[in-house]
User: Fold this.
Amino acid sequence: MGGTVAGRAGCGLRPPFPQRLVSGGQTGVDRAALEAALEAGQEAGGWCPRGRRAEDGAVPPRYPLREAPSPLYAVRTRLNVRDSDATLILTWGPPRGGTALTLRWCRRLGRPCRVVDLARRRGRSLARAARSTRVWLCRQRVRTLNVAGPREGERPGIQARALTFLRRLLARGRIGAGLGPLRRDRG
Assistant:
């Protein structure tokens, strides 16, 4: 295919981009984002609720998050949207609950937002979604990306699906690197 995504999109950013991924540390999509960033050697961070509150107890200390001044999930959601250049929302069906709140904060704060419904994406369709998201990131000139979506307790299996997608998204090198057909996640 030739060329990097950045070069093809004409934005002049050099991989890796985004340079930093942030999330709220909740199980599910949030943790997948932190894992993907750490695996790719990229900076990870963001805000989590005071007390590192999460549905499985406390956000593990291995995730480099700052505690928000409140234990409310909505507060850390707003802070992560505010402190990012754009937000990527990974869903399984229509956004609802905290995921829908993230979308509302993006609109209120005027931040670019992209929603990828993983329930509708398999194999080559998922690979195309990762490629088009890379181009979107480049065109938006995103350096700090907030990643949000449902918690594992709401959508069992979402963490593994999101991690697979994010690994493909963050693959370095040429267009399509790591974007082969998606194998069905187990577990």
